[in-house]
User: Which sequence fits this backbone?
């Protein structure tokens, strides 16, 4: 069996870069039962042996404040990796050793990787590794993930330690205040009586004094669990009275006391630390006046790159699939199979792949922002605004990217640490108007508000979209998430660093892979279903009826050629409309007509909205077909504008646009929402609330407008 | 062991650059634990580096690293200017 090595460490310790160095292209998403967060694993070779390396989420401690911490701790406790490697930012030894001390308390002897070793020298620090190793009783290897120095030595040291019998060492303990130590010993003695506990008893006692909720609920399940908790509560109460604060404070203090002592003995500052370049960069990037213009510039660049630059590869993809479609339809015999392959499958695959350029470029940008350290600053300067609607500063990026396309924007919510913030951001992001909704607004604004078309489009695309985002943010903050405790904002602002090319490429590749694997298949299935619903059932009688009328029209002689062609075109359009009306999608549209009536739309509007589920811009094409203008229309077509003017009033158009803005996102975005929420209740809620919001808003506007005599 | 209430103040009320020492962390368990593990322990020397352009959050420097926290969180951290040093002394006395 190959050796299992788990990589752990604080965020910003360079852990992921080190993982990339160790495993390179062998990375995949590991499959660990019971682990809710996806963990990456990879293999590395050393001599003849192959070892498996698992990259745990970056955490500051083994307490379980966040999902990530829970995953990291449970993995170490339950999966029992042969070796744990703790990656440490050597320039920030004190803070990073906190996790190592907790690992020691747990009975794990980690191998320490003192990463960013090159910066130690440049900062004028001198670390006595031998002494530190002796003081902690651990193997320590200096590394530099950026250049690869020390990586091989680290792997060798880890394998060596894995070869030894690890055993659980229970002898490590930091010195606590006497009263607390007595209490810990007392609680530990009680824990020792219970045979069913798999954790190190002293560590468990400490966790109980730190009031770790996951540990509490686990203890509660035990036969004498309640007794233990009662004892614990009593001890905490008497200790708090004696010591003047909760035990957890003193536990943290004692750990840091131990660390400070060790660091004092082993680290020397050989020359005074000058003002760091990082601080100088920060004076500009978080400057009182310049912070926002610079931030807006970066956002603008990210947006332009993602959606404008991304347009070129998207066009290539579209023409490639168009070409494949035409090949399929010319080389295959006419029939169901040909339609399925060309209009269903090829178009469906194209519809999945077309989003890849956006996703790749956006995540290239996000990786750069995260790896340089700018992401934390962006959160720092926007948090005040976002927190008003109950969100985190980092929610800003999904919100802005939502203007381009909801799919990558929703995926960008992954940068948020807290589950609550992530759910909220995913629920709200689809409200921001994506670029696919633009053609609908252009069509309706052009048809019914010709004098103010640009303003109306702006109103819907920007003002109403963000307005809905902010409004619903408020609503959620004060209803659904009212009782939730605020996840602490406390966030490290890491020094600015140059990102490594390898890390960025790997990150980008993983996002694309995630999208293709997790969403591609489902989207394809849905596209085929939607295609089938919009193409079937066929209606040969209706078609032949119209074909006959077209033939008859062709034979009419007493009119000019132009008039005859006009008549034939009109009949062909009517045929299209009639055929579409009795497809499944058409029937659904007919069926739900009562739902759209209250906001002034008819069955054609309803059918267009249903087809808009495929992609929002399809609404325009569907209207062209349904109003018998022909299927080669776009939002600028005069013909389509005229029929829209006939069938809609300014008021009903306004309501319809509002509905299009707010109702469920397209199928790809919806599947992204479901995949990222990973929770059926929230997914259903997401669909439900958006439909309800859209309907209520559209109906309210329409009915109030009618009462006002518009 | 009782802190000198007169001399301690809330972190949020101090100016940038002033050298402070942490006396006590209040607030809910979530916040308290995160603050402690980030090194905001009694006796720790800290200073406010800057406030965000909208005055919230603020940036702290401690143990050679920079940490951002919201004003509402900074209100839960009781500190004392370092030249009034008694809190540091008492905190040290409490831990050892």
Assistant:
């Amino acid at each position: 069996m190959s050796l299992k090595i788990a990589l752990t460490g604080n965020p910003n310790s360079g852990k992921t870069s080190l993982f990339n160095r160790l495993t390179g292209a062998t990375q995949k998403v590991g499959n660990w039962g019971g682990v809710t967060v996806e963990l990456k694993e990879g293999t590395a070779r050393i001599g003849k042996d192959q070892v498996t390396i698992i990259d745990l989420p970056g955490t500051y401690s083994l307490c379980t404040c966040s999902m990530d911490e829970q995953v990291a701790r449970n993995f170490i406790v339950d999966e029992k990796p042969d070796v744990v490697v703790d990656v440490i930012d050597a320039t920030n030894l004190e803070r990073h050793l906190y996790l190592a001390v907790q690992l020691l308390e747990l009975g794990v002897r980690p191998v320490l990787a003192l990463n960013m070793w090159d910066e130690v020298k440049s900062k004028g620090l001198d670390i006595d590794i031998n002494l530190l190793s002796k003081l902690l009783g651990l193997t320590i290897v200096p590394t530099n993930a950026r250049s690869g120095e020390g990586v091989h030595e680290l792997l060798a040291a880890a394998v060596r330690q894995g070869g030894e019998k690890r055993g659980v060492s229970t002898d490590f303990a930091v010195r606590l205040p006497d009263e607390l130590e007595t209490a810990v010993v007392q609680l530990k003695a009680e824990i020792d009586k219970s045979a069913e506990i798999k954790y190190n008893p002293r560590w468990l006692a400490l966790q109980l004094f730190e009031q770790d909720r996951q540990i509490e609920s686990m203890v509660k399940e035990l036969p004498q669990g309640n007794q233990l908790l009662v004892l614990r509560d009593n001890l905490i109460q008497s200790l708090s009275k004696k010591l003047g604060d909760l035990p957890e404070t003193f536990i943290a203090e004692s750990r840091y006391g131990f660390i400070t002592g060790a660091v004092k003995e082993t680290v020397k500052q050989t020359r005074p630390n000058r003002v760091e370049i990082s601080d100088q960069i920060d004076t500009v990037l978080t400057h009182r006046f310049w912070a926002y213009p610079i931030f807006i510039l970066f956002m603008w660049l990210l947006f332009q790159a993602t959606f404008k630059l991304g347009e070129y590869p998207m066009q290539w993809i579209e023409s490639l699939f168009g070409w494949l479609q035409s090949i399929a339809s010319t080389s295959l015999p006419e029939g169901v199979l040909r339609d399925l392959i060309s209009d269903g499958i090829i178009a469906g695959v194209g519809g999945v792949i077309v989003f890849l350029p956006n996703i790749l470029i956006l995540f290239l940008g996000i990786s750069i922002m995260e790896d340089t350290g700018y992401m934390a600053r962006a959160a720092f300067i926007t948090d005040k605004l976002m927190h008003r609607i109950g969100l985190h500063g980092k929610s800003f990026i999904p919100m802005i990217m939502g203007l381009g396309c909801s799919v990558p924007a929703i995926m960008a919510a992954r940068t948020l640490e807290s589950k609550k913030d992530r759910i909220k951001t995913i629920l709200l992001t689809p409200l921001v108007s994506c670029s696919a909704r633009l053609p609908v607004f252009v069509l309706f604004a052009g048809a019914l508000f010709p004098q103010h078309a640009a303003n109306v489009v702006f109103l819907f695309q920007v003002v109403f979209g963000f307005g809905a985002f902010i409004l619903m943010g408020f609503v959620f903050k004060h209803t659904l998430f009212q009782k939730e405790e605020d996840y602490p904002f406390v966030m490290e602002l890491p020094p600015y660093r140059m990102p490594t090319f390898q890390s960025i490429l790997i990150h980008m590749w993983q996002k694309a892979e995630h999208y293709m694997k997790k969403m591609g298949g489902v989207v394809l299935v849905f596209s085929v279903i939607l295609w089938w619903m919009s193409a079937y059932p066929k209606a040969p009688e209706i078609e032949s009826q119209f074909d006959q009328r077209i033939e008859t029209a062709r034979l009419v002689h007493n009119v000019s050629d132009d008039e005859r062609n006009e008549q034939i075109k009109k009949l062909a359009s009517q045929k299209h409309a009639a055929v579409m009306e009795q497809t499944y999608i058409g029937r659904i549209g007919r069926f739900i007509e009562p739902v759209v009536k209250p906001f002034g739309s008819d069955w054609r509007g309803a059918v267009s909205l249903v087809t808009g589920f495929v992609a929002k811009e399809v609404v325009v094409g569907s209207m062209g077909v349904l109003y018998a203008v022909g299927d080669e229309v776009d939002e600028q077509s005069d013909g389509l504008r005229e029929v829209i003017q006939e069938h809609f009033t300014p008021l009903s158009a306004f309501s319809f646009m509002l509905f299009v803005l707010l109702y469920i996102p397209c199928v790809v975005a919806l599947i992204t929402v479901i995949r990222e929420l990973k929770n059926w209740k929230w997914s259903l809620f997401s669909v439900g609330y958006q439909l309800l919001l859209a309907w209520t808003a559209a109906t309210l506007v329409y009915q109030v407008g009618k009462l006002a005599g518009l | 062991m009782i802190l000198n209430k007169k001399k301690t103040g809330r972190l949020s009320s101090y100016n940038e650059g002033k050298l402070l020492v942490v006396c006590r962390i209040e607030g809910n368990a979530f916040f308290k634990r995160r603050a402690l593990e980030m090194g905001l322990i009694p006796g720790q020397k800290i200073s406010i580096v800057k406030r965000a352009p909208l005055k919230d959050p603020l940036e702290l420097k401690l143990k050679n690293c920079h940490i951002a926290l919201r004003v509402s969180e900074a209100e839960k951290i009781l500190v004392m200017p370092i030249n009034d040093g008694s809190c540091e002394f008492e905190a040290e006395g409490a831990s050892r």
